[in-house]
Amino acid sequence: MNKTLAKHFESLEAQRAELLTSLHRLTADRLNYHSEGRWSINQIIAHLIAAEKLSVAYLQKKVLAINEVDNTGVYEEIKMIGLIISQRLPFKFRAPRVVVENTSRSTSISDLEKEWSSSREELRQLLEKVTDDQINRRIYKHVRAGKLNIQHALIFFREHIIHHYPQIKRLM
Questions:
Q1: Which one, of 75, 39, 51, lies nearest residue 143 by Cα?
Q2: From CA 87, how far away is CA 97, in angstroms rounded?
Q3: Confidence (pTM)
Q4: For the chain, how many structural domains are there in total?
Q5: Domain that holds residue 32
Q6: H or E, element range at 141
Q7: Fewer CB within 10 Å, N- or C-terminus of the chain?
């Protein structure tokens, strides 16, 4: 695996492990508690998983023709900065319909952990296929930021968890 992608992936895995470890002490009732119109902790975790799974599925298709697309440049770097800032601000965003439709209804944290582990393994296998000269190719499509590269995808996954972490902390 490319060293840069490996570093991002290892960081993502550490972040996921830390988040899930912090949830192990909570009861099933606490993990599934939500007030009217708000998500429970398990629903937030399911949302994070769905967003990643859909992104990985998209990337798996795009990597098949990775050499047919251009590299990202300064414009995409600027878009990525904007995306990071948007995830760090305390604003709520409506989840894309496709993510909502593909979000697990599971109320079991152990089932969600297994699903996330499986999705992350698919991501790891995908990253193994990307060569050093391909890491800047425009193969990731973010719903709001548009076409980005696979490094940007990994950064977004990290930022997406950071974005939802205060919401999880409030519910803990």
A1: 51
A2: 19
A3: 0.94
A4: 1
A5: 3-171
A6: strand 140-142
A7: C
